[in-house]
Amino acid sequence: MSETAITDPTIERQWRQLIESTSTEARALLSGTASAAAPALARHFYDGMMDDPLARGYLDHAVVDQRLRPSMERWVRELACSWDAERVREQIAVQRHVGLVHARIRLRVDLVMRGARLLKLALTRLLLDSDVATLAVRVEAAHTGQALLDMAIEVMSAQYVDAHDMATRTDEAYRSFASSLNMSLERERQRSALLDWENRLLQEVMTAPAGLELPPLGQSSFGLWVRHKAPAIFAQASELAALHECITHIDTALLPLCQREIAAGGEELRRRLRAGLGEVGQARYLVDTLFDRLVDLEAGRDALTQLLNRRFLPAVLGREVELSRRGGPSFAVLMVDVDHFKGINDSHGHESGDRVLQHLANVLVACVRSGDSVFRYGGEEFLLLVVEVNAPQALQLAEKIRQSAAGESILLTGGQRLTTTVSIGVAVHDGHPDYQRLIEQADRALYRAKAEGRNRCVLASD
């Protein structure tokens, strides 16, 4: 169910009844008090939330000060000053949207309820302590304010449950899709990636000068895949936790010992190296065990390009936001669009247009790493989730994609060849808990790239 779903007739009727039964004096007191105290109420709300260790994980002071507190002030004013019974549906739609955002950022509903309790207590105290109205009016205004807050939270919670259920089903569908890939091929890809790292390690140990840092397994293509994609495929498998421990042990214990012995050389270095390679063998065994548990099915792909489709974006982006919230590195979203695609279809036919999209899909997959994800976003648009990168690295990848797309000609039906270009918008996650905002930033950057002449990469500005 979306935020535009049909309004619950019960809550709409009760909201209208509350408005119609509230006296003019109580309305004026509630509106005036809430409007004047909106900054203080918002500050009280977020101060209380920031004192809570559970809530603090979803918030930081910069995000609260710059974005959330002004939004809370507007929300308080709109809720307490909307007395037109004919616009109740609009108010309910606002609360649905807030509940949808809470579900998208995976904010726990009990934390929302706790914040609402703090807000109600503060607003009630202000109304009852007011000296501009009789006690009866102050009590009526306090009861009305509490009821409005309760109904708003009720609508938010209902939307939250619907959206959370949908997200859970989508997450499960993504797991089903991820586990239905060609597991034999994926197993060999990861075994090959692990072998590549092993060979690189041996080469570095044998040829590198003292002081050169050995390549961490966790930063290799294999390590990124384990951290970002394997959890979706294997869920809570015990071998996956053991694999994480294995990689951590290699990077934090065995590699530093090898590095320390490089300068000295001799038998001790070889012993340390044997221990490290033995641990790599254990990692290889764990990977094989994980893949052995899955069946080989094909489902859930975009029919034309064989990429992920956009229904899995909430599952994938939500997981990356959660990793970042727990202190992980930043990630980026790239929006890629084929330039003048309508002209290609008009001049060469839709079959040629399909070939262009298939070609670009292959280019994108070839440019990214195992831990990244490529989606067919819709039409001629593609979305890339690129993990563990900063802004310069994300722009560098975008430029690589742009050059690769422009540098290869596409064979069309009838033997013709066509060269196309792409425009790319890049947005790097800045800690905001709503991934939809990141997609919108990348999309705006893409439109800037097109407006500035196409065939270029543009980094989103805040």
Automatic annotation (TrEMBL):
MF annotations from Gene Ontology: diguanylate cyclase activity; heme binding; oxygen binding
Substrates-to-products reaction catalysed: 2 GTP = 3',3'-c-di-GMP + 2 diphosphate
Gene Ontology cellular-component annotations: plasma membrane
GO BP field: cell adhesion involved in single-species biofilm formation; negative regulation of bacterial-type flagellum-dependent cell motility
SMART domains: GGDEF
Domain of life: Bacteria
Enzyme class: transferase
Protein name stated in the entry: Diguanylate cyclase DosC
Domain GGDEF: 329-462
InterPro entries reported for this sequence: Diguanylate_Cyclase, DosC_2nd, GGDEF_dom, Globin-like_sf, Globin-sensor_dom, Globin/Proto, Nucleotide_cyclase, Rev_trsase/Diguanyl_cyclase
EC code: 2.7.7.65
One Pfam entry name: DosC_2nd
